[in-house]
Specification:
alpha+beta, six-stranded mixed beta sheet, 6 strands, 31% helix, globular
Length: 139
């Protein structure tokens, strides 16, 4: 299936270890290529729906991830272009505590909203169905 250039750029920010600085730099560079100046990211409910308003805030958040985890990877499994302005990426989070070595994993669904070809917002959900419902799209 063919995807838009924008969807492909967003996809490229995934699959990297956010607890590893070189991977983090690549992920943030990919996001910078698509993010609008006023880009915001709302994290999922288990992270108290924290909202970050810039890539600098994302870098600070990722630094905290790096302190607590040796691995934190968002592996994409599905990409959906919902319309010209929204992209949904669904996948799996795999993490491992740095000191405890306890593995943590789960699913994620990230709904990206675009305006004039730039990402203005990313909304995080636990499941594909939650993201689709929020987007007003039937699963």
């Amino acid at each position: 299936m063919e995807y838009s250039h924008t969807a492909e750029l967003v996809w490229s920010a995934y699959g990297l270890n956010w607890a590893n600085v070189p991977d983090l730099d690549r992920a943030l560079a990919a996001m910078a290529a698509v993010a609008a100046p006023a880009f915001e990211m709302r994290l999922s409910p288990e992270l108290r729906e924290r909202v970050m308003h810039s890539l600098d805030e994302m870098r600070a958040f990722a630094s905290a991830i790096e302190e607590d985890f040796s691995v934190c990877t968002y592996s994409p499994r599905e990409l959906m272009e919902l319309d010209g302005d929204r992209v949904l990426i669904v996948g799996r989070i795999d993490a491992q505590g740095r000191l405890s070595t306890i593995p943590l994993n789960g699913t994620f669904a990230h709904l990206w909203e675009f305006e004039n070809g730039k990402a203005r917002r990313m909304l995080a959900y636990r499941t594909r169905d939650e993201a689709l419902e929020s987007a007003g799209v039937s699963g």
